[in-house]
């Protein structure tokens, strides 16, 4: 997914909706449709920059439930070649304090773009086609 698609997907997953009141002259049915016709300036004005703004991603991550938070951390760890969850999908915190600290470090130091991708993968909205 490119940064524009990421911004749209996260925004829609967090309640941003296309409204005719927002752009009365358009007639488009989605952010993607509108952005395709009008370019990136629309996103710059309307949507948070999830790919570059850690504060925006912090707010998004707070919407995940406990199970999703563990999946999200697993995705971030896998992006760096580490695995958080075992083959059964279980994680046992405290079992290995060194691994726990490594996981905390990886998650804490991830970029906004890494967090955005992990979030979309966690909620099933990541699109591999791009």
Brief summary:
It is built from 7 helices and no strands. With 130 residues, the protein is an all-alpha fold.
What amount of the residues lies in strands? Answer: under 5%
Mean pLDDT: 78
Radius of gyration of CA atoms, rounded to a whole number? 17 Å
Number of strands: 0
pLDDT < 50 runs, ≥5 residues: none
The count of helical stretches stands at 7
Largest sheet: none
Number of domains: 2
Q: N- to C-terminal separation? A: 5 Å
Shape label: elongated
Structural class: mainly alpha
Q: What is the H/E string?
A: HHHHHHH
Helix content: 40-55%
Draw up the topology in text.
Elements: H1 3-13, H2 31-38, H3 40-46, H4 54-61, H5 66-79, H6 97-108, H7 112-122
Helix pairs in contact: 1-7, 2-3, 4-7, 5-7
Kindly describe this structure:
With 130 residues, the chain is an all-alpha fold. Helices cover 55% and strands 0% of the residues. It has seven helices and no strands. The chain has helices at residues 3-13, 31-38, 40-46, 54-61, 66-79, 97-108, 112-122. Helix 1 (3-13) crosses helix 7 (112-122), helix 2 crosses helix 3 and helix 5 (66-79) packs across helix 7. The relative contact order is 0.18. The mean pLDDT is 78.
Core attributes:
single chain, 130 residues, mainly alpha, 2 domains, 7 helices
């Amino acid at each position: 997914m490119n940064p524009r698609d990421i911004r749209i997907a996260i925004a829609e997953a967090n309640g941003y909706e296309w409204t005719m009141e927002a752009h009365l002259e358009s007639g488009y049915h989605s952010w993607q449709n509108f952005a395709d016709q009008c370019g990136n300036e629309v996103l710059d004005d309307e949507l948070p920059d999830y790919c570059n703004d850690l504060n925006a991603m912090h707010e998004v991550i707070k919407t995940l439930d406990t199970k999703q938070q563990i999946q999200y951390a697993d995705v971030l760890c896998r992006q760096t070649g580490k695995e958080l969850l075992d083959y059964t999908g279980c994680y046992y915190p405290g079992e290995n304090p060194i691994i726990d600290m490594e996981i905390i470090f990886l998650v804490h130091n991830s970029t906004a773009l890494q967090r955005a991708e992990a979030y979309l993968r966690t909620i099933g909205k990541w699109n591999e086609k791009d």
